[in-house]
Amino acid sequence: MKWMTTCKVTTELASRAMDERLSFGDRVAMRMHLAICKNCRRFTQQLQDMRRLFRTETTANDDVPVLTPEARQRIANELQNKLDT
Amino acid sequence: MNTLDAHRWLADHGDYLFRVARRQLHSDELAEDAVQETLLAALTAQARYSGDASPRTWLTGILKHKIVDQIRRQLREVEIPRDADGEEAVDSLFKQDGHWAEPLRPWGNPQAEAELSQLRRVLDECADRLKPMMAQVFSLREVAGMETEEICKELNISPTNCWVLLHRARLFMRQCLELNGFSKVGAT
Which end of chain A has less Cβ packing within 10 Å, N or C? Predict the structure, then answer.
């Protein structure tokens, strides 16, 4: 276990921390690096910003994609076919 | 007997399912197919629907399986070039000693709906530019919110492979967003 990591390794740890709990050693290494590195602090914050944005449904109506009437009709027909059999 | 139910699913949840599918499949046509397959599967499986979850949650669960099926089919069709894993591109983001090659700029904190929806457009465009394998893993994790364990199993890749792909995808997404004005939008 290394106690001082590079930015590159820190981004690997920060990415992985988004998906699972890091080992104690990795957590310590990451925190020590973050304490002294503004760029990597920004990186970890931005990973969280990205996730938040991706998982937030926007309610603005201007460009919200919807099923076309044709597609809707086609699907309705398929459902009806299945119901009829 | 359940004619009403099936058609009501389409009426009430069709657009929502379409949006979820479209964001991951990046294609109107494939997304329409996924919605159709989902509703047909729901019709077959409705005896097993306990009513514990809302219909939308239940349908979305089925849809996720259909999306994964579709992604698996796409993966087989796409020939992944040798540098598809983007290792060299990742190296170029860092100096030899492992420090960032370029300083990172701070992002704003967008609150307004209009800003958010503009950012979402940029997000989707950047996601479209990821290498196929990276894009699939990234969107299953970040958009669909699947656990990495589940993703590995579904796509038949090793956990290590999955971490590496996610790490690279996140680095590229971040860079793409910064290059496309993320650091300016919403900054106060």
Answer: C
Residues B89 and B68 in one domain: no
Chain A residues lying within 8 Å of B19, measured CB to CB: 64-66
Is B184 inside any structural domain? no
pLDDT per position as a tens digit, B31-52: 999 999 999 999 888 878 877 7
Is the ipTM reported for this complex over the cut 0.85?
Answer: no
pLDDT score of B113 more than 70: no
- Whether residues A11 and B142 touch (CB distance < 8 A) is answered with no
Query: pLDDT tens for residues A36-80?
Result: 999 999 999 999 988 888 776 544 444 577 899 999 999 999 999
Q: Which residues contact B62 (CB under 8 A, 6 or more apart)?
A: B38, B41, B42, B45
Q: Which residue in B142, B169, B144, B161 sits closest to B68, CA to CA?
A: B144
Distance set, CA B180 to CA A51, A82, B40, B65 (Å): 18, 47, 40, 33
Our CA angle for B139, A23, B148, nearest 5°, is: 20
Find the domain containing B61 and state its range: 3-77
Give per-residue pLDDT as tens, B93-110.
999 999 999 999 888 776
In the block, residue with structure tokens 């700029």: B105
Mutate to test the interface with B, among A52, A56, A67, A68 (most CBs of B within 10 A): A67
